[in-house]
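Format notes (please read before filing issues)

Several people have asked whether sequences and structure tokens are stored in separate files. They are not. Every record keeps both together, in the order shown below: the sequence lines, then the token lines. Line labels are part of the format and must not be stripped during preprocessing.
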Amino acid sequence: MSALFRARYPELVRLADLLGADDPEDIAQEAFARLIRKQETLRDQDAALAYVRSTTCNLVRNRRRHLRVARLRTPAGQDEVSSEHAVMLREDHRELLAALAALAPRRREAIVLRYWLELSERETAATMGVSPGTVKSLVSRGLDALGKALEGKL
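Then the structure lines:
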């Protein structure tokens, strides 16, 4: 497990960040903590990476849902960007990341898994808990929306 953590932790932090997590490092750590608790019951030890990726996606979804409810109950204020998040945003990618952040969460998740993590459609579908056809649809619609949002900007 420690080798998997050392090899994949930065990738999962990046995944959580690209999916819009406000605390990507905590999300990645929690995903690995859940993997450790589950490792004895995993049928296939080779499935650990897929499990931790799926867990990361689910944790981000749950966290975003929680924050949406919390924001509805608190007065509006300006969101502050953490210094870690600011460092990750290179100037030349700012517009792309803004357009990506504006996508519907499931479309953004499909695009990030498919292209940033370079997962196959089948792996992306397994991570998201949907069919490969749904992944194709989400990616296609997401890329169309990104193209429209970025016309003439990059």
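For reference, the curators noted about this record: DSSP finds eight helices and no strands in the chain. The helical segments are 2-18, 24-38, 48-72, 83-88, 94-101, 105-116, 121-128, 132-150.
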